[in-house]
Amino acid sequence: MTAAREVEGQPTDPRLPAKLAAHPSVRAVLARRRSGDAVSPPAVIDADWLREICLAAGADDVAAVSLDHPDLADEREHAQSALPGTRTLIAMAVRMNRDNCRSPARSVANQEFHQTDEQANHAARSVTRALQDAGHRALNPSVAFPQEMDRFPGRIWVVAHKTVAVAAGLGVMGLHRNVIHPKFGNFILLATVLVDAEVSEYGQALDYNPCIDCKLCVAACPVGAISKDGAFDALACTTHNYREFMSGFTDWAQTVADSEDAADYRSRVTDSESASMWQSLTSPPGYKSGYCMAVCPGGEDVLGPYLDDRKTFMDTVLRPLQDKRETLYVLPGSHAQEYAQRRFPHKPVKEVTGGWHPPAKRSASH
Fold this sequence. Notes:
The protein is an alpha/beta fold. The chain is built from 16 helices and 10 strands. The chain has helices at 18-21, 24-35, 47-57, 76-82, 98-102, 106-133, 161-168, 216-220, 234-241, 246-258, 262-268, 271-282, 291-295, 304-308, 310-323, 335-343; strands spanning 44-45, 61-66, 88-95, 138-139, 172-173, 179-180, 188-195, 198-199, 328-330, 349-351. Strands 2-3-7-4 form a 4-stranded antiparallel beta sheet, with helices on both faces.
């Protein structure tokens, strides 16, 4: 039976069953539609309005890019899976405090990373709310973690924020695989919002690279993950820098399981390593390096001190990171191991599996 009749004097939608049409919430929605008060989203989002809400939410720069952009071909399936009907990706950049990122004290640098993570997530969520209130469907994936761990070791991220930001014109990927913003340099974290509408104006890719080819990121990386010729060893980077994230935790858990007793565990893991892992389990996990970002002078707001006195810049920014005594985590027999031992002999080097495969069984006589 359809609700072709009136419900308490109010006309109803003949397509609705009578019981549904009589529900108070349904009647309220239909009444708003009849009165013209219902939200009717614009077919095209005004770019100036969008920029205003993004900046008000906490972003320092923003640009939109169509999901049909040729550089986003590999992202389309993932974006549509996350939000069916996605038409546009909104890229936002949130600035970090530079000297915090440069600090050899990892607690200072990591606090900056995680605080900016939260700011970027809050900004993206606020923009998503504003778009939703305007009648659009919108979604903001996490800026960093949490991610889709059920897919590990495959692609665990919902959207590749760096790829989107570059396509939108917020910056260019540097030698160190960080996006360099033309003004703020690489001292930014990125967020992305997916929305089911077009935008009146899209960003344009930069016609130059803010990277000045100084190679300081090459000099700063303690495991040789960045090469002067542009090659990048992602496994070396993740094995060390992400030691206290998913893969390093897996390796640590395997070590715990393989230890015969507390004394054997202590022979494998130092007290400071245990304390650091505990901290990463109770607080946001800590990055071991990030030095490539710390030393990068690219970007108009960042470049001045490097231009004024390059020696002082290297003495105050690069050298403290190079001189720091710290454990470097490498895969056995890797280029990273050879590089670390040769280039930074004062930094202890420790072989780990990186969690990529179980460690070899030790012989009973060991």
